[in-house]
Amino acid sequence: MSAQNPSGLVAEGTSAAVPAEASLSQPQRVDEALREAVWARVQQARNVKRPHTLELVRLMATEVIELHGDRLFGDDPALVGGFCRFGQHRAVFVGQQKGSEVEENVARNFGMPHAEGYRKAMRLFRLAERLGLPVVSFVDTPGAYPGAASEERGVAEAIARSIGVMSGLRTPIVCVITGEGGSGGALAIAVGDVVIALENAIYSVISPEGCASILWRSPEAAQQAAVAMRLTAGEQQALGVIDMVVAEPAEGAHAAPEETARRLGSRITEQLDELMARDLDVLLDDRYARFRRMGAFADSGSVVTPRQERQSLTERLRLLLGSGRGMLGTDLGPLRPDAADDQDEPPLREDV
Amino acid sequence: MPIKLPFRPRGQSFPPDLWTKCPGCQEMLYNKQLEKSLRVCETCSHHFRLRVDARLAQLLDHDTFRERDAGLESIDPLGFVDQKPYPERLAAARSSTGIRDAAIWGTGAIGGHRVAICVMDFAFMGGSMGSVVGEKVTRAAEAALADRLPLIVVSASGGARMQEGTLALMQLAKTVAALGRLADAGVPYVSVMTDPTTGGVFASYAALGDVNLAEPDALIAFAGARVSAATIAETLPEGFQRAEFLFQHGFVDRVVKRAELRDALIGLLGYLRPRPPRRAASAASEDGSSGNGFLSRPLSSMVDVRAEPERSRG
Question: Do A205 and B164 touch (CB under 8 A)?
Fold first, then answer.
């Protein structure tokens, strides 16, 4: 099916203005052009006219039946789900839903789910597993709702739980980042066997504005933060966080929703063909391995081998500070006997 | 002896290397006394943040901790530069804290119960979770599964480390997936939330304990007050997002004072015993003898009496 449409499914050439993999770990020279190119994608990802989950599902799938409610508290309009059919595959879909008009956007809470949204998603994931249906999730959210009601009902617990349910769900899962992939609220429904992104989608640990206000202490640095976080689909693919990028029509998805849906739909169907044919145990092991290898770190491991396991921390540190130095970029320095709560630096963290 | 900074306020009559002002009751606390009271103010019971070595010393039986994977260190996968390059921030954090990253894990014993334990330190870049922290929590969970040891994670973190971008975000999925396997295998996990436990750490492993404990008045939140205020112009009520609030709303089993935490864990560990493995016993002992298993060995052989005290006791 997709073979007829290879041009629509290119991964390369999607991000000429953003750096390629080779330069990913080098500090970037942030010039104006790069900043504008990246920011243009952020704006594309946030474009209110961009087709959102329900529009895309209605365009690319048939027999759509929406289901409602988490059976615990209520029905979250910011996270939708139900049954639909991709080609021959009956499936369960789930996704954050933004509105394309102000009024609808308010009703949809700008695509920011509360805890009940993620609990609805979990209910549908489990239903899919029981029925032997694959899951297709659509990610498009600035993040989970960071308000009082959300905290009260445990949105963090719901996100953590949802990640857990997806990572062990005994049915194939295809995830698609269609617009904004904002932090934990996005990841909560983005743990799957394959993660696809639309060309102008973004995926980040925190919003560019949030990052800017914490690390630059000024929301005006959002464009700089967007560049630094490498949040474009192309860069995320280079990092291995996203498996494939689906090119959008020239003007962007908002200008041609049908064509976007056609391209994306054929890629989803193709993935379902492949995943449904695979052994479930292998599928689950691969899914675990996919996320297990995420991350980048060094192991100056000569000090930690199983044989030396009984060596105490102090001994190891002494070893390091003596002959083993140079493995560290810096000396560890003396261990400070006095614990200190006060920091010279502002805390560097996602939020708070 | 800490270096005296030139811009320390004048006229401060208490040298800060000897005295600490309690933010709870404004009392000046003598540092040596504060250390003795586990860094809890004896006047108002304010819980100061605890360094990882002090935490391990407080919770574990003397001389039982054996650190694992001490060589893991963060790199800079994104070439991230904000006002300072990420490698410079890492270097500064390493030299000011004396630890490699914001978490340390290993095995030890609590009241004679063998455990795998991972402890976070807020002093290292706000306890933020990058690849190393995620890897350590994951390895702790995987080792807990392999050795069938209860897992304890003591969290103190502002959330995911922004400088590692989505790779930091992916640590949520990595750690939670490992905990899922642990739970499936019937190996218990206790999450201890200390001040603060927020963002991506709360929204992953910290929230998922079979038993969740929290220290009094610890900030435990998905999004901090500043983020809420900035994102949705909503001001959060007083006392919101504190341990007691989480307890009231059913996300924490018990709020436990620091002085009682070790005993609380000992009590729980009496119940939280790993289910015997499903496979035949012979297979289990094979697993156990293949390297790091403790199953077939008596407890006395696990405690290395030769090892010198951890640095916290030094």
Answer: yes
